[in-house]
Fold this protein.
Amino acid sequence: MSSIELSKRQEHILVIVEEFGPITGEQIAEKLNLSRAALRPDLAILTMSGLLGARPRVGYYRTGKTPSDVIAGVLGNIKVAQLQSQPIAVKNTCTVYDAIVTMFTEDVGTLIVVSENGYLEGVVSRKDMLKATLSGTNLNSLPVNVSMTRMPNIVVTYPNESILVAAQKLLSHQVDSLPVVNVLDVEGSEKYQVIGRFTKTNITRLFVQLVSK
Ligand code: ADP
């Protein structure tokens, strides 16, 4: 992803403004052999995205921003809290059998495992559950915390973190989801209170929303 998808005409407008700016809408229209009204939607897109600036009685000018600056600006300003899903958690005393049932009933691929007090202890994925199943052990007597990935190896994100940083964590650690946490100081030790779940689906949904607005 290196640039915004601009139409041929929008790219042409950028070239004209680059060369002749500041230039009025009327003058751009003339150079393109179009009416001012026909250009209005393109000029609106180019100014709203920050690629062009506009001053009354002066005209349009290039802001110096590139299309990829604009994308990074939009995505970099969105915080995890704006996209996160509800956390689906089970207690560390839960059995593997019950964890699998919860995955089906809650329709999630990753469960967050919490302590009696609700603090983050671990994460179990679908493959963790498959592995436990292959072991041949009675799933009703196998506690989920035997199969989970545990703290301090859990990769987390924070409500105020940029979704770009969170997305990079999903990719670099090759996981499907991150617990969203608030960091608490509980009698001198650091605890993670789980307040959400950030997943690849959240990012996919954002992409669809961005173009369907
Ligand atoms: P799956 O194993 O179903 O493909 P993941 O790719 O998310 O799902 O999980 C891969 C492994 O990473 C699993 O063993 C899982 O316990 C672990 N894991 C999942 N999410 C995290 C996380 N946020 N931090 C650390 N480990 C994780």
